[in-house]
Amino acid sequence: xxxxxxxxxxxxxxxxxxxxxxxxxxxxxxxxxxxxxxxxxxxxxxxxxxxxxxxxxxxxxxxxxxxxxxxxxxxxxxxxxxxxxxxxxxxxxxxxxxxxxxxxxxxxxxxxxxxxxxxxxxxxxxxxxxxxxxxxxxxxxxxxxxxxxxxxxxxxxxxxxxxxxxxxxxxxxxxxxxxxxxxxxxxxxxxxxxxxxxxxxxxxxxxxxxxxxxxxxxxxxxxxxxxxxxxxxxxxxxxxxxxxxxxxxxxxxxxxxxxxxxxxxxxxxxxxxxxxxxxxxxxxxxxxxxxxxxxxxxxxxxxxxxxxxxxxxxxxxxxxxxxx
Length: 324
Hints:
10 strands, alpha/beta
């Protein structure tokens, strides 16, 4: 019997389902792109390249790092949000993206709705630092007293960046208000360089971005923002030990993808990404870069990212922070 047109049309949905199932079972069968919305060489880029290379080894398919910096990390995130929901586009995010969700309410994508977590890969603390020659502060309490008594200039790697949020927390804890002037830079390196040159009074800097200046004696660390001391600066007290637990915070980096990616592909991404970051060599290199390896599953990562988005939304609102 020859099949009728009706029979052929009825078979199309089933064929499509079979095709999708086969595509998911064979995932990945081609190269993936891993969008890093920051310049090459930064902390997020370093972690993405470590994990991406290991995933390439696991899958036998290239994971191509695509640096799409600009727009306070919005440009790269927007490209990822508009990518096909097939799991072949990954996005590297940091705490900055959770801040952006409220700092840029008119962004061309919805951070909470358009993305889903794969894993929080690693975290790193920030450190309160001053110029070792020009600032007499020897403790966090000394700096907070300075902030109450005179005008200070404080740098950051940009509006909405973790160092900026750390600065705002210092402003609130000290009660200094407008006596602390925020000086945003285009990245962590130039801000740390200006602090070392004596052009700023203090910073709340990502630890890896200022560790060389600390070890070289040009910057003096006063307190670290993590819950525990860090092996790279074991003699530096935590903010809690220094009497200001309100300053406790960590920067972190995570992998996300399009929220509409099918569940089987998400499960594969999760399992293989966790295997990649937990690889002994990858973990060692991440720790050498100042990271604490987290390697959280999707559920824990999603809950954490949601909580961070809520936390920084409150600060953005209360401090009346504005984007440039």
